[in-house]
Model the fold of this input.
Amino acid sequence: MQTTELTQPETAVATPERTLKSYIGLTLRGMAMGASDIVPGVSGGTMALILGIYEELINSIRAIGRPQFLRPALRLQIRPALEALNWPFLLAVGLGILTAIITLSSALEWLLVHQTVYIWSFFFGLVLASAYTVSKRIPRWTAPLLVTLAIGTVGAFIIVGLVPVQTPNTWWFLLLSGALASCAMMLPGISGAFILFILGKYEYVLAAVNNRDFLTLALVAVGAGIGLVTFAQVLGWLFKRYHDLTVAVLIGLMIGSLRKLWPWKVDVAWLTDSSGNFVLDSHGELLVAQQINVLPDLATQAGVVEFILAAGLAAIGMAAIIVLERIAR
Done:
């Protein structure tokens, strides 16, 4: 089995020589990640992986938790602290993510409510093609790699089928929710938004944003920061020592997540609070707790037309990934 050594040293993350055009490209990649992270079920980590910046992103975040950055940062020595980071890369990608969240949230939210089948079809094509393109990063598939792929697939399949639970709104659970969501955000196939949904905190955090509840948002953000830096250490170590096995797991996560992205679903359960009352989303609609996947309706003309349009959008999503992967290469 082939292993691939990371190009970044353990002591610090070097800042590669890049042009302004390159940083604009990084910002656009960040926007693709941000757009993906908005949707409960699609991961920004998937976009980072297919766009060729995943390992550099992990290593750059990992450097934040290392002594080369922490020592000067705690002493308020700004220049030595920045020298230990790949900060231009993080700034460009972070700016893209933030821009996408600010500019695209409303449009994606509207599509998820009013054009459910079509938006999920598009994302289904995106992730399906992503799994294929990323699989080419492993030069030779062996039995252990296939077993690892299967484990990742089954794990994601089970996770995305979990029913949301009622959880406390205490400070420690908000920290924990932020940490778990940020860890999931770094994994292709499992989105941070979906983890918040499973933990019963998706609508709570959205309400905090709309109501400007800065204390709640701060607790979630602190937890997310801790989880992001801590989990990056684990992922960086895995990439360095077990590169192909790690990539196989990530591909499995993407394949397993297709269960969540299947366009045709039927609602079978709705979320209730501790008093037994139904929970409403930001549009005043019942918040669905559980769905089952069904086959498209091909018995009616409207169903056939919907299927053709959905299949076309899935094909467009697949083509977009193939084009993006070639551009990134």
